[in-house]
Amino acid sequence: MDKNVGSTDGRVRTAVGAVAGALSIATLAGVVPLPELAAPLLGVVALAALGTAATGVCGLYSVLGVNTCRVSPDESR
Q1: Of 26, 54, 63, 69, which sits most exposed with the smallest number of CB within 10 A?
Q2: What is the span of the domain harbouring residue 31?
């Protein structure tokens, strides 16, 4: 698959993933008063955001035809 996540998009995903992961752990530790269901949901959001930021490929972007990467598919990455 071609990369479709640009650098700014990747930085935002990294930040969102870090915050969601920290909230998930804080919820599990009882520091943040969120429902128990919030911890695994935030964990999944964190993994998805960090995974797409690390690989540069977003499956949903592929389905929707979105590309925030400045490099065209013909150029090397």
Answers
A1: 63
A2: 9-53
d(CA 18, CA 60): 20
Please state the pTM of the whole predicted model: 0.85
Residue 71 lies in a domain: no
Residue 2 lies in a domain: no
Domain contains 74: no
Question: Mind giving me the DSSP string for 2-32?
Answer: -----HHHHHHHHHHHHHHHHHHHHHHHTSS
Alpha-carbon distance of 14 to 36, in angstroms, equals 24
- Structure tokens of 19? 């915050």
Asked if residue 43 lies in contact with residue 30, where contact means CB atoms within 8 angstroms, the answer is no
**pLDDT tens, position by position, for the chain (77 residues)?**
889 999 999 999 999 999 999 999 999 999 999 999 999 999 999 999 999 999 999 999 999 999 999 866 566 55
